[in-house]
Design goal:
Strand content of chain B: under 5%
Number of strands of chain B: 2
Largest sheet of chain A: none
Distance between the termini of chain B: 36 Å
Number of strands of chain A: 0
Helix content of chain B: over 70%
Strand content of chain A: under 5%
Order of helices and strands of chain B: HHEEHHHHHHHHHHHHHHHHHHHH
Number of helices of chain B: 22
Structural class of chain B: mainly alpha
Radius of gyration of chain A: 22 Å
Strand order of the largest sheet of chain B: 1-2
Radius of gyration of chain B: 21 Å
Shape of chain B: globular
Helix content of chain A: over 70%
Largest sheet of chain B: 2 strands, antiparallel
Order of helices and strands of chain A: HHHHHHHHHHHHHHHHHHHHH
Largest interface: A-B, 35 and 34 residues
Oligomer: heterodimer
Number of helices of chain A: 21
Structural class of chain A: mainly alpha
Chain lengths: ~475, ~500
């Protein structure tokens, strides 16, 4: 089965759902989300039977679309992330409908679930993009959908403000991207990423570097790295929680998917340009780690803390990209990035599900909302502790392995400055993540009443934290997912 | 098979968390089983049946590898099972918090055992971290006094130490070019002299924070003073030894690099012994005094390590490693006993301020006797375990002395001898103020009860261990015999 059918399944499924949405009862719009999950499950199963992209008979399309192990991994990642985001959205529907529809009705929420499918299709295409044109088109499909997802709660000022901020900065970064693509096309005469590597000469390397720098700025917006990181805290805080989780995980991952594709020809070229690209990436990594972790320290709001943590994680994932190791006995940089992202998906979704539960019960996203959780709901507190430990990178949780491998590849590449900044970042991370554990166990709450957790959220959190614990001891299953990536 | 030693407390901890069975019974049963198993292992620890190895990640190659790497592991495992059992038995759990209390103790114990049983560098590190989390939580939740500040301080300090240590370990493995993280592969590889120096610095600072090496020691005393007794026993007795164990284990890989830092290390360890020693004399509370004394005694073990660095290899100073190991064991048992007894005093009188105590010996003669015994051991009285350790340490300092001018290690040894006097001052003074003199009324009835039988068992186990190793140090030293070393040499030294 050709792999492009996967995107078609998701996209057509999304359109059909959008039509069906008009005929569903206003009180039960979440059935649309279940339909979307069903479509994604079909795509997920089909992914295992997909074997090739466009065949030789479609030469023109072949150059836009790759189906290699890297693309397969990121498609899998995107589908799983979207399913989890939809589960979170179902769990979150009461708050969503509060700001979109009249009381007692969920009328305004149906389209919300469909939008995830369109964004997912765009991200799946991004994973396969191997030409600057297809890269741009798929990126825009995702980004424009994301604008709506962020500003969806139209009666909530925070959500609208976040939407506007996201739109303006997103448009700006799109401008950077197009301008960069134009420079690269002008310097090499091709938009095919594989062809660019072969056409690097001493004469055009300055133009290429300029073009690449512009593209990196726009990719930094996508992955949430310095210098385009300023939107993240406000947008994450204002957007509906499922959107925030989706942006923080799926969007970041697909940003890294295309970042790998874009920098690969430059880093593999063996020219002076490769050294300069490494240098830029190392600076971005170091600055992002430092900013994300240090700015997270004074945060009092958990959602905002997760936003800064998401910036910090972008920095950690940039480390292996800057280290760029291929063809060694060790894991290649692409594998390390994939490894990190796979684990990041599990622990960040766990954190967002926990956040949603806390918000529903206390009506607050502040860290102080966690106070006394150790007594009010010991199981949730225990699972939160595991998740927080993983985010901080404690050994024997899954979170440790991502950071460990990222650091190891940077140490092997002898990037000493970013590595030392990274260790400062991890140490700062212990401080701000442990504030939550401190609040849960060391502080007591005025309200001693028990928590209500919807079964769907509880089950998801249990599964995700169990994964964190098992993969902490035994990370080999993650390796199996990505061993074919070259 | 050695994974059973870790699984018993681990499974028991999860069972308690899940609410299966009575927490105290489950914990005691698990710890007792572990104690019997751990002591039984002594007779067959060299058998291959104990080793397991399971690859958890193929690139980089990391194994869940457990077993007795050498006699040092065995001695540490014996220490861990002893302290774990007594920690479970002792202490008073606050009403209604049994599940947290006992599961945390068991988790700490499992982590400590895992670290000492690991024959893979990664799991060696990771198990220790596993043990630290419940330690922090217990101090913060169920500690006494300034528990929140103390817990936050120890968390930040030890997390920082762990990060620095991890940086050193990653660099170590990366520079060695070893294909796996197994000790046997790592120790067979070599590292260039330039990298060794940097790695050695990171290891000394990283492990040093975990061991409370001066000037990174200020977390220790407040944390032990606030911690619930079993946690203080397990951390001071077992977990703190992780750092020294790690330094000695990894020493052959960075033997050249360590020499660059020998001077610094000697200054710092003398500060541990003398500076912290004087600080200890000045303490007004029994628990703070014990916490500081435990920091001080780390200096002696570092002295053995400094003698090892000066000699350049295990073979060149065959006394250093056994000396460190015996003293680690002796200190672990002794400090655990002291913390246990101090907690008993706190419960019976409601205070640990030295000025408010007095005359307890009349009301509680057995408590006084055991405290006296442990105090004497801590000073280094012959016939008790610490004496064997300290004598070996001082002898190892002079092992390579050829009768010429004193080297820096020898000077340090001579200065460190004064530490024994300092110990005698604070320990005897504390004993006098607590147990001698006019009795002070603390309870409504005006009468303090002596030990109940249930509390006596763990205290007696530790006291017997102190006596056995003190009178017959070969009970531990026999495990430390390396194939190259002539056994007679060690025996002579210890007698």
């Amino acid at each position: 089965m050709p792999s492009y059918l996967l995107e078609i399944i998701v996209l057509v499924g999304g359109l059909v759902l959008l039509l069906l949405e008009a005929f569903t009862s206003p009180k039960k719009k979440s059935v649309i989300a279940l339909g979307a999950i069903a479509i994604l499950c079909i795509a997920l199963v089909s992914l295992f039977f997909a074997e090739k992209g466009f065949g030789d008979e479609n030469v023109e399309l072949t150059r836009f679309y790759a189906f290699d192990p890297l693309a397969r991994f990121f498609k899998l990642f995107t589908i799983v992330a979207t399913i989890l985001a939809l589960l979170l959205a179902i769990n979150h529907r009461k708050i969503l409908s509060k700001f979109t529809a009249n009381p007692g009705s969920e009328d305004g929420t149906g389209e919300y679930y469909c939008l995830f499918l369109f964004a997912c299709a765009g991200m799946m295409w991004m994973a396969s993009a191997k030409d600057l044109v297809s890269l741009f088109v798929s990126l825009e499909l995702t980004t424009i959908t994301s604008y709506i997802l962020v500003g969806y709660m139209r009666r909530n000022v925070g959500s609208l403000e976040a939407g506007v901020k996201f739109l303006i900065l997103g448009a700006l970064s799109t401008g950077f991207l197009v301008y960069g693509i134009a420079w690269i096309y002008g310097a090499t005469g091709t938009t095919d990423l594989a062809g660019i590597g072969a056409r690097i000469t001493e004469e055009n390397s300055t133009y290429l570097l300029f073009g690449l720098a512009l593209i990196l700025v726009s990719l930094a917006f996508k992955i949430g790295a310095v210098p385009m990181h300023l939107w993240i805290p406000d947008v994450y805080q204002g957007a509906p929680t499922p959107t925030t989780a989706f942006l923080s995980i799926a969007s970041k991952a697909s940003g890294f998917a295309i970042a790998i594709r874009v920098v690969e020809p430059f880093l593999n070229s063996g020219t002076d340009l490769a050294v300069k690209t490494t240098f830029i990436l190392a600076i971005l990594a170091g600055a992002t780690i430092l900013f994300g972790n240090l700015a997270a320290i004074p945060q009092k709001n958990f959602k905002r803390l997760l936003a800064y943590s998401s910036i910090a994680n972008a920095g950690f994932i940039l480390l292996p990209l800057a280290a760029w190791q291929i063809g060694t006995d060790e894991l290649t940089s692409k594998q390390v990035i994939a490894f990190y992202l796979a684990i990041y998906l599990i622990m960040t979704f766990a954190a967002f599900f926990i956040l949603a539960v806390i918000h529903r019960n206390t009506g607050s996203d502040e860290i102080s909302a966690f106070e006394g959780l150790g007594k009010r709901h010991p199981l949730l507190a225990f699972m939160t502790a595991i998740t927080i430990g993983a985010l901080a990178g404690l050994p024997l949780t899954a979170g440790f392995w991502g950071k460990f491998l990222a650091f190891k590849s940077a140490v092997d590449a002898e990037l000493w400055v970013p590595v030392s900044l990274g260790f400062i970042g991890v140490a700062a991370g212990f401080y701000y993540y442990f504030q939550i554990i401190r609040a849960m166990y060391w502080r007591s709450s005025l309200n001693e009443s028990s928590f209500e957790i919807e079964p769907i959220a509880l089950r998801t959190i249990v599964v995700l934290t169990a994964l964190i614990a098992v993969l902490g001891f035994w990370p080999q299953p993650v390796y199996w997912l990505l061993r074919n990536i070259a | 098979m050695s994974i059973i030693l870790i699984l018993i407390p681990l499974i028991a901890a999860f069972a308690i968390m899940a609410g299966l069975g009575r927490a105290k019974s489950v914990a005691t049963l698990a710890a007792a089983a572990n104690l019997l198993l751990g002591l039984g292992v002594v007779f067959c620890w060299k058998a291959a049946i104990w080793d397991i190895s399971f690859e958890v990640l193929s690139k980089p190659s990391i194994h869940l590898a457990l077993g007795f790497y050498d006699g040092m592991s065995l001695v540490m495992v014996i220490l861990s099972v002893l302290v774990l059992f007594t920690a479970v038995m002792s202490g008073s759990c606050p009403e209604g918090r049994e599940r947290l209390w006992y599961s945390s103790i068991l988790l700490i114990g499992a982590g400590g055992l895992g670290a000492f049983l690991s024959t893979d560098l990664f799991f060696f590190y990771a198990f220790h971290e596993l043990a630290l989390i419940p330690t922090f939580l217990m101090i913060g939740i169920l500690g006494s006094g300034e528990r929140k500040e103390a817990a936050w301080k120890i968390t930040i300090y030890l997390a920082l130490g762990s990060i620095i240590l991890l940086a050193g370990l990653v660099w170590l493995v990366s520079a060695s070019g070893s294909e796996t993280w197994l000790f046997k592969d790592l120790l067979a590889s070599s590292i260039s002299a330039g990298a060794q120096s940097g790695i050695a610095a990171l290891l000394i600072v990283g492990f040093g924070i975990l061991i409370s090496l001066f000037p990174f020691h200020s977390w220790a005393a407040p944390a032990y003073a606030s911690a619930p007794a079993p946690v203080a026993m397990l951390h001071a007795g077992v977990l703190k030894k992780f750092g020294l164990y790690g330094l000695i284990r990894l020493y052959p890989m960075v033997s050249t690099g360590m020499q660059d830092w020998l001077g610094w290390l000697i200054v710092l360890l003398l500060c541990n012994i003398l500076w912290v020693g004087f600080v200890t004399i000045n303490q007004k509370r029994l628990d703070m005094m014990l916490g500081n004394s435990s920091v001080m005694h780390m200096g002696y073990i570092f002295l053995a390590f400094a003698a090892l660095i000066e000699a350049g290899s295990f073979e060149a100073n065959p006394l250093a490693k056994p000396a460190a190991v015996v003293l680690m064991f002796a200190h672990g048992i002794g400090i655990a006993l002291l913390f246990m007894l101090t907690d008993t005093i706190r419960r019976k009188t409601g205070t640990v301020e030295l000025a408010e105590l007095g005359g307890l010996a009349k009301a509680a003669p057995r408590l006084a006797f055991l405290f006296g015994l442990a105090g004497m051991a801590s000073i280094g009285l012959p016939g008790l375990a610490n004496f064997s350790g300290e004598v070996l340490v001082f002898l190892s300092g002079f092992e390579n002395y050829k009768g010429e001018a004193l080297g820096c290690v020898q000077v340090a040894t001579v200065l460190a001898l004064w530490g024994v006097v300092i110990s005698a001052v604070y320990m005897l003074r504390a004993y006098r103020q607590t147990f001698q003199g006019p009795a002070v009324d603390h309870t409504d009835s005006g009468h303090v009860n002596d030990f109940g039988p249930y509390c006596q068992i763990p205290a007696c186990i530790l006291a017997i261990a102190l006596l056995v190793v003190g009178i017959f140090p070969n009970s531990l030293l026999q495990f430390m015999e390396e194939p190259e070393t002539a056994p007679t040499e060690i025996e002579q030294a210890s007698n």
